[in-house]
Specification:
The protein is mainly alpha-helical. It contains 10 helices and no strands.
Length: about 250
């Protein structure tokens, strides 16, 4: 492998885990309506303000052996997992999609999807601010691909209108408003074909995984769709065009 490309991947990973550390802040504070910028990072148990060397992504957790340096309370494994996942997915995105502006925007989308997935899993609510952030990414993407602007505009309505009808018919029991908004804003970024594929993949994955969770873990019938829709978006983002081409070929069209 080209040493320059390897260096780029290493830098991408480091940026990924640093941003992953910030995602943990968002995951904890957004549901509590706390400021994600002004309030200093601190131990959730003793309240001690953390020093910079206690905030190094991944490494601080390993060095401290997963415990607060002051009160020795165990630190949630969520922190290194989110940091590591974000870094790995950043690298995967650049490896598959190449070193370009789209990959950078996709990485930011991945971070938004991780954040909303964890929050939705815990609270059954997708924060409006994250959907607005994804919309901004979609508008930037549309600007870079202005010659294909209609595809992105249609993407806003392709799934969201369908979900809106379901919400009206089921009186909000079929899907949530956050799911509708997520499909709308992600549709602006991916275009109509990929967002339709994202929705289908998300529903299939949700059906399989949640049935297993209900039978094995006794999970409730109500489920948070955000994480499953996010997985569908991620798969479509990196492999969607290939999957669509394969499917069309399978049908002989």
């Amino acid at each position: 492998m080209d040493p320059m490309i390897t260096a780029i991947y290493i830098i991408v990973f480091l940026y990924g885990i640093v941003i992953g550390s910030f995602l943990n802040v968002c995951i904890y504070r957004i549901p509590k309506k706390e400021n994600i910028v002004k309030v200093n990072s601190h131990c959730m148990s003793c309240g001690h303000k953390l020093s910079w060397y206690e905030l190094v992504p991944l490494f601080s957790y390993l060095v401290l052996r997963g415990k607060c340096r002051h009160c020795k309370t165990h630190i949630s494994v969520q922190y290194p997992l989110i940091e590591g996942l974000n870094g790995v997915l950043y690298v995967v995105t650049f490896v598959i999609n190449g070193v370009n502006v789209d990959s950078l925007l996709y990485c930011l989308l991945i971070s938004a999807l991780i954040t909303l997935s964890v929050i939705d899993w815990r609270t059954y609510e997708i924060p409006l601010g994250i959907n607005i952030f994804i919309l901004a990414l979609g508008l930037i993407t549309t600007g870079f691909h202005y010659e294909d602007w209609l595809n992105h505009v249609i993407g806003f309505f392709a799934v969201s209108v369908f979900l809106y009808i379901i919400i009206l018919v089921t009186k909000g029991r079929g899907f949530g408003g956050g799911d509708l908004k997520l499909m709308a804003v992600a549709g602006v970024m991916l275009g109509w074909k990929l967002i339709v594929l994202s929705f289908l993949l998300g529903c299939v994955i949700a059906a399989i995984v949640h049935v297993i969770r209900m039978r094995v873990a006794g999970a409730d019938r109500v489920l948070a769709m955000g994480p499953y829709l996010s997985i569908g978006i991620f798969i479509s983002m990196l492999f969607g065009n290939q999957l669509i081409t394969w499917y069309i070929g399978l049908l002989g069209l």
